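Support request from a user on the community tier.

User writes: "When I paste my structure tokens into the form, the page sometimes reloads and wipes my input. The last time it worked, I copied everything first. Here is what I submitted, just in case something in the input itself triggers the reload:"
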């Protein structure tokens, strides 16, 4: 979704194409003074057609080509210069744009761009100098964009155009500094955009002079009747008297980014990550940074302010909850008086006093050293009583009712769910786990190793809705598999693990909002009982 004239720091996704058609008309873009008593509209009417094609690569690179065609060129003759005439080919433009930075919340992006033109107009028409340049041009530039609220885009560009000097009536133009500013706002669920753009350039040798500093503004609207297809119409005046500034310019554009391509790569096998899984699943694909997010839905919390986010339902549908451990002390059965005297069990916990380290305090049978006969008040010594400690063998902190006594990153909750407090992150567009996420995964390893009653864990990767459905599925599958491999390398029995990719099939928030997309890019740890035949989520695929 580049603007009418101002490019934006975006990329459509790996191997995803984009096409556009652009028609514009300019009235009196070149008027010559000083050749007679009156000004001469050397170019009075100029109509052009631009056909463009682009391809995204590695989620951060966009390569593109554009072929302009002059449909009509009319004007009055200026003495000493060739006549303006007819129609013909203009200069072919080739370019590339690399996305340098995207903030985690997708509120800011920065890219670098390079556009080159080759003098196809001169080769095709010879004497028609107004249709193109005398030689090759190069325009490197920086493109930045801020998105302070959903739907609002504020874009700025600055660059330098290197060119051979072009001689016009009473003027010679050389290298130029270029500027652009665009502000757009999408509303009605991305159906309609209101947009204003302004762009200018100025000669390096005569910077800021009115005659060598063309400046224009466009005000327009764009409609997106369905995802990826945009139709736009804009118009606006020229500002000042710089060469090339028309009295009025009108633009009609059609753009189409089909929902194909976006193949998983080393830069997108996890960005579906931003995606992000996608992204950042940078589970991003979108061109944006991917993350694996914990779901706020299971705990009833919302947003990143929640200290922990439960990613597993306490009791999956159709599965009987596990029985409660035998917390109550058990007395010797009636009729065992003789044995009672022979092997005294004063606290009645069925651990004879001869083997009971706490003969008058019954064992609490909380699955923590239950054979020593002592109730464990705080087995891990973290200051949280075991009865309230969700991680009784893992030293933690008393900072959350949902996960009291557990590490800040991950824990095993009483209800049988795994709780994580940090997102699992991947390198943008890959299935490579970021080093910053290894601590939370080590805590997951600790949970599995200290809870042997967990027979099997399913690790699911999820993405947002940016990109192709099938590729998002492949992307989430690759990331789930990467976590499985890491856990196995850390000593977790492979028979306890299975990996599934679910793509964008099971969102937990609205994909129309950047915050929602970030939450949808996530990894879930599901505790399952193999004998229960618990059904898989619809649309998920095993990672083989």
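"...and here is what came back when it finally went through:"
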């Amino acid at each position: 979704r580049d603007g009418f004239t101002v490019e934006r720091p975006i990329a459509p996704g790996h191997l995803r194409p984009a096409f556009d058609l652009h028609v514009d008309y300019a009235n009196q873009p070149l008027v010559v003074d000083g050749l007679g008593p009156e000004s001469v509209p050397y170019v009075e009417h100029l109509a052009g057609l631009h056909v463009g094609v682009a391809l995204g690569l590695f989620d951060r690179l966009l390569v593109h080509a554009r072929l302009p065609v002059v449909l009509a060129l009319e004007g009055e003759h200026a003495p000493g210069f060739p006549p303006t005439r007819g129609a013909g080919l203009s200069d072919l433009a080739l370019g590339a744009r690399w996305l340098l930075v995207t903030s985690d919340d997708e509120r800011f992006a920065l890219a670098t761009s390079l556009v080159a033109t080759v003098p196809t107009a001169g080769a095709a028409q010879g004497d028609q100098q107004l249709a193109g340049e005398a030689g090759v041009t190069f325009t490197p530039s920086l493109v930045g964009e801020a998105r302070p609220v959903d739907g609002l885009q504020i874009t700025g560009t600055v660059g330098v155009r290197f060119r051979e000097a072009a001689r016009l009536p009473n003027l010679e133009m050389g290298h130029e500094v270029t500027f652009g500013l665009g502000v757009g706002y999408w509303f009605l669920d991305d159906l309609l955009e209101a947009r204003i753009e302004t762009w200018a350039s100025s000669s390096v040798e005569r910077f800021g002079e009115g005659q060598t500093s063309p400046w224009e503004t466009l005000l327009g609207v764009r409609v997106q009747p369905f995802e990826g297809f945009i139709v736009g119409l804009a118009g606006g005046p020229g500002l000042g008297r710089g060469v090339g500034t028309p009295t009025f310019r009108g633009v009609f554009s059609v753009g189409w980014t089909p929902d194909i391509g976006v193949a998983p790569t080393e830069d997108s096998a996890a960005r579906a990550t931003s995606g992000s899984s996608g992204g950042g699943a940078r589970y991003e694909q979108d061109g944006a940074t991917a993350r694996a997010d914990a779901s706020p839905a299971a705990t009833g919390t919302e947003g990143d302010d929640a200290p922990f986010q439960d990613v597993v339902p306490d009791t999956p549908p159709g599965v009987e909850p596990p029985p409660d451990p035998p917390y109550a002390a058990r007395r010797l059965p009636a009729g065992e008086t003789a044995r009672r005297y022979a092997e005294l069990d004063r606290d009645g916990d069925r651990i004879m006093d001869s083997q009971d380290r706490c003969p008058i305090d019954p064992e609490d049978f909380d699955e923590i050293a239950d054979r020593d006969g002592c109730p464990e008040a705080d087995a891990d010594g973290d200051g949280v009583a075991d009865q309230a400690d969700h991680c009784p063998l893992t030293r933690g902190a008393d900072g959350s009712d949902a996960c009291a006594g557990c590490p800040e990153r991950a824990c095993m909750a009483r209800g049988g769910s795994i709780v994580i407090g940090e997102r699992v992150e991947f390198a943008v567009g890959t299935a490579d786990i970021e080093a910053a996420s290894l601590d939370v995964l080590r805590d997951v390893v600790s949970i599995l190793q200290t809870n042997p009653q967990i027979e099997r864990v399913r690790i699911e990767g999820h993405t947002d809705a940016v990109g192709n459905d099938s590729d998002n599925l492949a992307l989430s599958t690759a990331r789930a598999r990467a976590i499985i491999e890491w856990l196995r390398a850390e000593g977790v029995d492979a028979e306890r693990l299975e990996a599934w990719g679910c793509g964008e099939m099971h969102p937990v928030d609205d994909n129309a909002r950047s915050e929602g997309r970030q939450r949808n890019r996530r990894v879930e740890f599901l505790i399952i009982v193999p004998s229960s035949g618990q059904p898989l989520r619809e649309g998920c695929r095993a990672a083989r």
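Agent notes: The reload is a front-end session timeout and is unrelated to the input. Residues 293 and 535 are 23 Å apart (CA to CA). The helical segments are 120-125, 337-342, 438-450, 469-489, 514-520. Escalated to web team.
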